[in-house]
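User: Sequence recovery, please. Input:
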C-alpha cells in the first residue's frame, strides 16, 4: 500500500507516469471513486464562496 502511495506521489511530481502503476480493475475502480469523492468535496467547498462573491 505504501508503494502505491509513493507511485501516486511520483506521478504528482511528474517523476513517473501512469505506466508505472500496477494493472488491475480494483485499482481503477478505487481511483475513480477517490476522484469523484475529492471532486465533489472540492465543489461543495468552493461553490458557495464563488456564488457569494457575485
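Assistant: Recovered sequence (54 residues):
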Amino acid at each position: 500500500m505504501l508503494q502505491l502511495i509513493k507511485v501516486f506521489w511520483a506521478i504528482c511530481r511528474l517523476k513517473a507516469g501512469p505506466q508505472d502503476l500496477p494493472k488491475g480493475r480494483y485499482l481503477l475502480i478505487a481511483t475513480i471513486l477517490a476522484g469523484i469523492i475529492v471532486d465533489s468535496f472540492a465543489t461543495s467547498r468552493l461553490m458557495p464562496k464563488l456564488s457569494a462573491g457575485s
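Residues 47 and 53 are 10 Å apart (CA to CA).
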